[in-house]
Amino acid sequence: MLHDDLPFASILDSERIQEIFRKHKSIFGGIYNTTIVLWAFLSQVLRDGKEASCQSAVSRITAFLIRAEKASPTADTGDYCTARAKLSEFAFKQICTEVATGAEQQVDSKHLWKNRNVYLVDGFTFQMPDTSENQAAYPQHTAQKPGLGFPIARVTGLISLATGASMNTTTGARHLS
Fold first, then answer.
1. Cα separation of 120 and 18, whole Å?
2. How many CB atoms are located within 10 Å of the residue 37 CB?
3. Sheet strand arrangement including 152-160
4. In terms of CB atoms within 10 Å, which of 22, 64, 75, 166 comes out highest?
5. Total tally of structural domains belonging to the chain
6. Do 86 and 123 sit in the same domain of this protein?
7. What is the pLDDT along the chain (177 residues), one digit of tens a residue?
């Protein structure tokens, strides 16, 4: 079955998603179950413009469920957004790491350097909403006056040069000195 509406349904096995999210105590049911929400979210973040909106994600879920002859949601995005917020960061990271590892294992040796997997280490920073929780975990830079900046996090990632997949990432507080 083609999954044009939620293309990750063809790639990420529902049973494996359920297993991983259950392990991380982040499983939920209903129309917006863990699997449907993960497939829709991945589809959403890889799109741009209006196609990246929650409304478009709900439309894709609706089309997918209608094709599967299952109950579909209303056009209201609130329940989808609430369900999306329940996705465990740790479960999501485990899924991404498994997919990247699986892709790496399938690489033809002609795409390797001297029959070796080669990786790129890269990093970046990003600002987050100015909440007390974010300020506690990711304090402002000491050059900023208190209350006049946003918490800054840094990410370091390991990327496969053969597949382009992110093999692993870690996030931490920006060094403040």
1. 31
2. 27
3. 119-127, 152-160, 166-173
4. 64
5. 2
6. no
7. 456 788 888 889 999 999 999 999 999 999 999 999 999 999 999 898 888 999 999 999 999 999 989 998 998 999 999 999 999 999 999 999 999 999 999 999 999 999 999 999 999 988 888 888 888 888 777 777 776 778 888 899 999 999 999 999 998 875 554
Q: What is the pTM of this model?
A: 0.79
One domain, residues 86 and 127: no
Look at residue 150 and tell me if it is in a domain: yes
Q: How many residues does the chain have?
A: 177
Give me 55's structure tokens: 């409304």
Q: What torsion do the CA atoms of 155, 50, 43, 172 make, to the nearest 10 degrees?
A: 10
Helix (H) or strand (E) holding 52: none
Pairing of strands 166-173, 119-127: unpaired
Token pair for 9: 């349904």
Which of 61, 90, 119 delimits the end of a domain? 90
